[in-house]
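Hypothesis: this fold can be encoded by more than one sequence.
Test: take the structure tokens below, design a sequence, compare later.
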């Protein structure tokens, strides 16, 4: 039978072991880190926070929903009057409320402190902080000249790569595509993929080399890439006759030298 008032008879000289036993068996009270971080943002003083901690402890450890002031004062400084004042403040600020609960053991309806208002206020404080964090992130990225990645475009690109490669992409490969999207238009990435597939080089290293070359030459559109390719081919064709003539001249020189020493 469970009894909260049962005490163990300890052996003489085992006080340290007794402390360790109670430390384990009494459990612990979990206080959310978000509450510790934001309680001042929702108009809770340090003293009021300690009252909340003791209320939570008594709820979890002792299963006491509505502890008397005297019991709370045993674990807090300032006496009963200060505890009463802090509780009244928490109720007036609507940080906590008093709600009726049904106690199955007693078969009766009893009053108890309700923490739902506390966590509703806490969620609002968290949401405001999260919005500011997101806005700051976007601002920093904008200052660095980095653009936010369009998730829909990113997912379409991943599917295109998986279709061409005939397999799912690894997380590292997916992040590589996300990195490319920060510097290149989606159409350029797809064109680089197409070129790699055409020559059978289905690997990210080769595609990255294509995109790096385009970025080095400040080619930001498909039109700019096409114009660059056209100029490259023209220069290559202009050099070909000269290179062919030089090769023929070298062959003639070699033949003359061979003829000279063999005659």
């Amino acid at each position: 039978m469970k009894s909260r008032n049962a005490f163990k008879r300890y052996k003489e000289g085992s006080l340290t072991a007794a402390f360790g036993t109670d430390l384990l068996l009494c459990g612990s009270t979990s206080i959310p880190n978000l509450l510790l971080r934001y309680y001042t943002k929702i108009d809770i003083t340090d003293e009021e926070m300690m009252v909340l901690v003791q209320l939570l402890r008594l709820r979890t450890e002792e299963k006491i929903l509505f502890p008397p002031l005297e019991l709370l004062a045993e674990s807090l400084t300032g006496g009963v009057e200060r505890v009463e004042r802090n509780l009244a403040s928490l109720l007036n600020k609507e940080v906590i409320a008093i709600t009726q609960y049904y106690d199955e053991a007693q078969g009766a309806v009893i009053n108890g402190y309700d923490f739902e208002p506390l966590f509703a206020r806490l969620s609002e404080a968290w949401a405001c902080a999260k919005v500011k964090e997101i806005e700051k992130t976007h601002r920093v990225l904008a200052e660095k000249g980095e653009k936010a990645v369009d998730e829909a475009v990113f997912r379409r690109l991943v599917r295109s790569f998986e279709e061409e490669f005939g397999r799912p992409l690894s997380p590292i490969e997916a992040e590589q595509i996300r990195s490319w999207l920060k510097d290149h238009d989606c159409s350029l990435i797809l064109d680089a993929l197409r070129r790699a597939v055409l020559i059978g080089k289905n690997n990210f290293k080769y595609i990255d080399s294509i995109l790096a070359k385009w970025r080095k030459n400040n080619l930001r559109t498909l039109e700019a890439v096409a114009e660059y390719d056209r100029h490259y081919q023209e220069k290559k064709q202009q050099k070909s006759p000269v290179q062919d003539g030089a090769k023929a001249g070298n062959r003639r020189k070699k033949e003359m030298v061979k003829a000279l020493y063999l005659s």
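The first strand starts at residue 97 and ends at 103. The two ends are 121 Å apart (CA to CA).
Hypothesis status: open.
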